[in-house]
Amino acid sequence: MSEAPRNEPVLAYVPGSAERALVDAEISQQAQEPLSVPLVIGGERIVTSAQQAFSAPHRHTLQLGQYSLAEPAHVARAIDAALAQKQSWAAWSLAERAAVFRRAGDLVSGPWRARLLAATMLNQSKTVHQAEIDAACELADFFRFNAHFAEQLAEQPLISSAAEHNQFELRPLDGFVYAVTPFNFTAIAGNLPTAPALLGNTVIWKPSPLAALSAHYILAVLEAAGLPPGVINVVHGDPGAISAQVLDHPAFSGLHFTGSSAIFQGLWRAIGERIGQYRSYPRLVGETGGKDFIVAHPSADVTALAVAIVRGGFEYQGQKCSAASRVYLPRSLAAQVQAEVRGMVAEIRVGDPTDAQHFMGAVIGRAAFTRISGYLERARLDPECRIVCGGGFDDTLGYFVEPTLVEVTDPKHALMREEIFGPVVACFVYDDHHFAQVLALCDESTKYALTGAIFARDPAAVELARTRLAMAAGNFYINDKPTGAVVGQQPFGGARLSGTNDKAGSPWNLMRWASPRVVKENLNPPQDFRYPFLAPARATLKS
Ligand code: NAD
What we know:
Layout: H1 18-32, E1 35-37, E2 39-41, E3 44-46, E4 51-56, E5 59-68, H2 72-91, H3 94-109, H4 113-124, H5 128-154, E6 164-169, E7 176-180, H6 186-198, E8 202-206, H7 212-224, E9 232-234, H8 239-247, E10 252-258, H9 261-273, E11 283-287, E12 292-296, H10 302-314, E13 324-330, H11 331-347, H12 366-381, E14 385-389, E15 393-394, E16 400-401, E17 404-408, H13 414-417, E18 424-430, H14 435-444, E19 448-449, E20 451-455, H15 459-468, E21 475-478, E22 495-496, H16 507-511, E23 517-522, H17 539-542
Parallel strand pairs: 1-5, 7-8, 7-10, 8-9, 10-11, 12-13, 12-20, 13-18, 17-18, 20-21
Antiparallel strand pairs: 2-3, 4-5, 6-23, 14-17, 15-16, 19-22
Bound molecules: nicotinamide-adenine-dinucleotide (NAD).
């Protein structure tokens, strides 16, 4: 059995460090040379006449490149390429396939680290620290840990005897897999097409149009690591049209999706409508939206709680599926917690994330800015809302939104129920003796169940929250912010409206991409069809 990998250490990027110099050099190069991002089908780079330009979210004038848009003929070619490569890729041993991804992990943490970080900082507006934990550490961890977990899966012991041998084969699914990835994590974009590929599947990958640059470098790393052409085929373009064409194909055998709940439900519905035309029942894995909570008990450590709200709610501009976005505060602590959050927010600088003094960058694009600023405008006019800090937004240079805490008087206010996906945290203040009722409220206020946290020093309160909120979050934190899951340490995923909870970067997820076959060989086949119970009865009994 392979040795368990270690999580990739997080580098600090302090000014003057060698790693900082490398990233700065990459940032200047990628900012100066806009990239043409092609489709990649069967290993061939295809630049189409129809292209879409993209720029940095924090600087409208910084053109980063343009990506090619697929036409139906390209999608058809991508499916053909995936199917053509399938047999040969599936015939590689698991050890050979795992070696490709382990090599990719080493390239990510080594020579490609700065390039992936720079792309993630420029394209998705992440600070160097946010880019490091995502595009370097989590991506390398996905590649290395998945390889290890897949090898563990393959070693299922079966009982054999002297007369028969039983074997377990991890076959891939019977067809191709469709991976659809979100903008907010380079690591997730890397994981969704590669987890099925590791198990011998071939893949059509549709990256987020908002993270085309990072997606381009992920594929380049995989190619450099020895991934054969046609195993992962990349198509950019109209998501609805591409998806309809892919899902129409009888060999579609699995969907690996991360993104919003509504899009996943639409894809699931489309698959359901076509269920009669597929060769097999497709595997559907979707990790979707969240409305992640922090419940504070009167015994909570106020400063730790305030830090969790600030880091959990505002890092990467609140654009993590796990970001804290609703907080339940006991009346005895509320003023103090709000004052501490206000103090921290006063120190936060929002701006170009390639400038190290900024704790936050811009939100991802025009649609996000309009959605988030709409919530803030409504909150400003709503008598049920009091803006504790922040509330401003400005799209003059880039899509900037201030970190905002809003107190609401109605615990079921839209700000406490809807996924805003921006740096906006709503809080509701409850009477201290209503802790048990507040747990019920937390559980029942939204349909999401992704992440959540309890802050309490009283062990009985921790236990009560843990029990009462058993179904409210797939990842539950005690005295910690609800973000920052690490591969191999906190396998990630939520249930209810938040997804199928298949735990990315774990054996549970990998199992979904295999269709095991069990082979029994009989070394001593029977020569007589009759069983002993059919033997003639004895004479003594007859008489
Ligand atoms: P999104 O749903 O807008 O897009 C996700 C992907 O779906 C993109 O590739 C997009 O192009 C594609 N898409 C859009 N319309 C489509 C259509 N009609 N048919 C098929 N595909 C379509 O999500 P996003 O803005 O990129 O990411 C943010 C969302 O993802 C949030 O809801 C967040 O909570 C969720 N998310 C969840 C997790 C998790 O692990 N649960 C992780 C990251 C993000």
